[in-house]
C-alpha cells in the first residue's frame, strides 16, 4: 500500500513531465485518500496553473477553504559548525530577517541579468511577484 509521500511523488512527476491529464486523475484519487494533505491540493493547483486553467486553480483553492486545509509553510535548514539554522517561508520573526532579505535581493539583482527567472507559474495567482521569489 502506497503512503502519502509516494502519491505526492507520483503527482509531482506528472507535473514535471507535463502529463497533466494523468496528474489530475492521480490527484483526484490521492485527495480522496488523503483529504487533509495540503501538498496534494498544491500540486493539483500547480498542474492547473501550468496549464493556464485558472478556473481549476480557483476550484482547488475553494475546496481547500471548504475543507479547512491550509498550506504548510516551506521549511529548510542548514548546519554550520554544528549549529543548525532553520528557515520557514514567510517567517519575519528571525532576528536577522533584514539581513536575509537584503542578501536575497542582492543575489537576485546579480542573477537576473544572467537570465534567471523564477518559475512562478504554479504559485497561487494572488501572490505578488516579490513573495513568489522570496
From TrEMBL:
Source domain of life: Eukaryota
Gene Ontology terms, MF aspect: RNA binding
Single biological process term from Gene Ontology: RNA modification
Family annotation (InterPro entries): E_motif, PPR_At4g14850-like_plant
Identification of the protein by name: Pentatricopeptide repeat-containing protein
